[in-house]
Amino acid sequence: MLTLYPGRFSRRRFLSGMTLAGTAGLLGWYPGRAAAEPPPETTRIRLVRIPSICQAPQYVAEELLRSEGFTDVQYLQRGGTADIATALASGEADINGHFAAPLLLRLEAGDPIVILAGLHVGCFELFGNDRIQAIRDLKGKTVAVPALDSSRFVFLATITA
After folding, report:
1. Which of 53, 57, 87, 59 is nearest to 73 (CA)?
2. Is 129 exposed, middle or buried (0-12, 13-18, 19+ CB in 10 A)?
3. Are the C-beta atoms of 86 and 143 separated by less than 8 Å?
4. Superfamily for the 39-108 domain
5. Cα dihedral 11, 17, 22, 24 in deg (nearest 10)
6. What's the pLDDT score for residue 75?
7. Residue that wins the pLDDT comparison between 88 and 31
8. What percent of the chain has pLDDT over 90?
9. Of 135, 94, 131, nearest in space to 116 by CA
10. DSSP state of 93
11. 14 three-state secondary structure
């Protein structure tokens, strides 16, 4: 492995590193798994599957999860985004990518959810008509949402605030 050192990097340093790597290969010295992390304590991981393009990274990550030692990757089929927080809070699901705002509402309600990282800022689109052409035109209007704890409601409430 070639290590980059701070300061000027010359062709001579690059060639010496390549020579060292090539010599190690010729002598049969290969990096072993000694520095690898141990396998996870549990080999099962459960994620929520909903009909949404936003969940695509989880399906792509399935092979990565398997390569990390999760031999039993399960997907729980649910109807929509409001079901993700419920599955996480109840322990049915172990981890999931989700829009943060509904999870914050569930945290406020006392649900035992842990947020590990920011992932999804929201990708909703608001369609209007000749009377609704901007967010400010929603003032005093009624807007339909599937549920008050849904990501659509939280996102809409956030942008109208």
Report:
1. 59
2. exposed
3. no
4. Periplasmic binding protein-like II (3.40.190.10)
5. 170
6. 93
7. 88
8. 17
9. 94
10. -
11. helix
Distance CA 121, CA 107 (A): 18
* Four-residue CA torsion sign, 56, 62, 68, 74: positive
pTM above 0.90, yes or no: no
117 to each of 29, 127, 153, 158, how far by Cα in Å? 39, 30, 22, 20
Nearest-angstrom CA–CA distance, 14 and 68: 32
Longest dimension (CA), the chain: 77
Cα(13)–Cα(2) distance, integer angstroms:
9
HSE of 109 in the Cβ direction (CA atoms, 13 Å)? 12
